[in-house]
């Protein structure tokens, strides 16, 4: 006999990652301009198909608290901001995390263009450290009001819990970022990332080989107690991890 519960869960995961026909297919003008800037700066970004699908998934989830890790200069961010500027459902918190202050300045300019999306802010720093500090901040403030916590502890490093965390930091450090991000999710939260490319048989870059092995270990570890789904697209595969 087939396990109907498993089938239902698989169908729900497939529906979550599917194309959203209610959303426009054309790239937002701001995103197109950022793509040109990326080429001039010789920077990489997720493919058009992946950016569009992450936007589709976000539109379906309607998250109230979003953390984007590795926002870069805002290529994917511009798709999300365009969505929320068009839709009635907007997150109360959207945090763009970037390690370097140079990109942080560019992201702040992007947010100024989408000022209608309230609650958006740029957070500069190493994500793993920010995540640990946010968990500690949450624990320390759990018995007092938010106002009292901010008065005594300062602003929260990140707003928790998160409905959606997007991790796009490249292959190096990806697994560590995901491990740091999973405790930040709420009970029904989701994490989206991009599966790293499988090294070729003649790959000589040891860092790339080790990063992929770390990914394999992470998948084995996470799949034991969390929902996982993979959606192949042009330019890569989106991976969804849910509580």
Mind sketching the topology for me?
Blueprint: H1 4-17, H2 29-41, H3 48-61, E1 65-69, H4 75-86, E2 93-98, H5 101-113, E3 120-124, H6 127-141, H7 146-153, E4 162-167, H8 174-181, E5 185-194, H9 206-222, E6 227-233, E7 236-242
Parallel strand pairs: 1-2, 1-4, 2-3, 4-5
Antiparallel strand pairs: 5-7, 6-7
Helix pairs in contact: 2-4, 3-4, 6-8
Structural commentary:
The mean pLDDT is about 90. The protein has helices at about 5-15, 30-40, 50-60, 75-85, 100-115, 125-140, 145-155, 175-180, 205-220; strands at about 65-70, 95-100, 120-125, 160-165, 185-195, 225-235, 235-240. The chain is about 45% helix and about 20% strand. Strands 3-2-1-4-5-7-6 form a seven-stranded mixed β-sheet, sandwiched between helices. It is α/β, with parallel strands linked by helices and about 240 residues long. The two termini are about 25 Å apart. Helix 2 (about 30-40) packs antiparallel against helix 4, helix 3 runs parallel beside helix 4 (about 75-85) and helix 6 packs parallel to helix 8. It has nine helices and seven strands; from the N terminus they run αααβαβαβααβαβαββ.
